[in-house]
Each structure stands twice: as C-alpha cells, then as structure tokens.
Amino acid sequence: MIVKALSGFYYVQTDDGVFQCRGRGNFRKRQIKPLVGDEVEFEAENKTDGYILDVFERKNELIRPPIANVDQALLVFSALEPDFSPLLLDRFLVHIEANDLSPLIVISKVDLLTDELLDEIKEYKQQYEKIGYTVLLTSTLENNGINDIVPYLHGKITVVAGQSGVGKSSLLNSLKPGLNIETNEISSHLGRGKHTTRHVELLSIGGGLVADTPGFSSLDFVDLEAEDLSNCFPEMAELSSACKFRGCTHTSEPKCAVKDALNQGQISETRMKHYLQFLDEIKSQKRRYD
Hints:
- Pfam families: RsgA_GTPase, RsgA_N.
- This protein has 290 residues and is of the alpha/beta class.
- The protein has helices spanning 86-98, 115-131, 150-153, 168-175, 234-240, 257-263, 269-289, and strands at residues 2-6, 9-14, 17-23, 40-44, 50-55, 61-62, 67-68, 72-78, 102-108, 134-137, 157-162, 201-205, 208-212.
- The strands form three sheets. A six-stranded mixed beta sheet has the order 10-9-8-11-13-12, with helices on both faces.
- The protein is globular and about 65 Å long.
C-alpha cells in the first residue's frame, strides 16, 4: 500500500518495510495517477529504487485530499475558539455521505465551556446520535477523552478533517506521542488556524492508518445533483421512499414524508434549514454553469 506521496515518489509499505518507488512511464498515457491508500504491485532492486507496475481497483477516491480506499472520516470540531459550527459540520457530513464514508465526530475543548454552553453541545451530541452518527467529546486536559477515539481507528484508513484551527494536528500528536506534527496557533485576527500539513501521508495509529492531511480543502457542491442531496441526510433518505413523488426535494411538493416528520418534530429544524440552504446553493451553481 502507498503510505506517502511526495515530489514524484511513492512510498510503498510492505511486510518487509517501506520502498521508495516511481510510477511506470506509461501511467500518464493511461491516465493513471497512483494515490496514497492505493494497493499496488511493484518491483524494486533495493529500498530506494522501485517502480510501481500496477494499481489495483479502488473502492473510493477523494480529490481533495488525493487519497484512495478511505473507510472513515474523523471530523474534529471545537466547542470553543473557534465556536462550534453545526452549519459547517453538516456541510462536511454531506461530502462524507456523498463519498460513502463513515463519519466519526469529535468535539474538543468541552472543558472550556460554561454549564449553559456545555448543555447546548450535549444537545447537539444527542441530535447527531439520534441520526446514527457517533459523537465523542474531548477536553484540552491531557488525554481526557482522546483514548476513546483509538478503538474506532483499528483496522481502518481514516482521513482527518474539520474546522480550521481546532487542533487536528495536536489531536494526532496526542493519539501517538512522538509524531511531533507541526502545529500552528489560531490567528487572533482571522479567528482561524492555518493548514500546517503539505502532503498526504498515512500514519500508523491505534492499529489503523490515519491520513495526516488538512482533509476536504474544498467544500462546494459542484459534483452533487439537487435530487441527490437528501440522500446525504440519513434521516431524510430513510423517509424519502414514503414521499408521494419520486425525486421529491422536500420543499413545495404535497404529501412529503420528510416535511411531515419535520412538523412532528422528528427531524431537526436546524438540519432542515441547512438542507434547504445547500439545495439553494446547488441550484445556483447549476444555473451559473448552464
């Protein structure tokens, strides 16, 4: 498996160690670009001079970050500094659902909250757990809640993503002491952090492989059709078959099971508001491109 790509070299992990390889000359002609996470066939006379001969079929592929065969996304959001953003979380979740990944939501810095704000975060936790997502709370205190994440990493390829400046690199450093991934403080002027990772690399953590990468660097909906958006909201996808009209967008159509569930309090008003906002954004993009 390719565990790192850097400056035209691919670093292939095997039972005998890591081999530095280049891609075959005909890969470009065949429009094949090896990605981190790819399972490959290669030949090498030594550890620093190998060639990738073939890239096996992928189960999925992300464009930004460029990585293949991902099992789950570890979404890191902070409760404070920067403030927790359910809108941004839902945007991430749509992209993750569209790529058939399993999300693991981590909300950090909960020890910095007042009792009132902590109750609010716990309400969000219950809301997302009701949908079927796993939500873990961690604090800034040494390893408080961090170790709860480890079992979810075992045997999986995980990509880390989330709010900028929430401490994704710090989290990885806590999960595997000694990594010493570069971290940056949040800019007080912008209220956000800077990306500190510059290439994709799979790190062995918790019995699995974790991508040290900024995660989804683009969160627009260019590749998503309006009629597919509700499939990225599990609570809506579950009800869509009960709508009167096939391809119901859950906006103005009569006898809509999703709107009925909303009126009965079975679907979060906040989630519905975000769905409508994303739907309008997708339609606007399509009109612009047309």
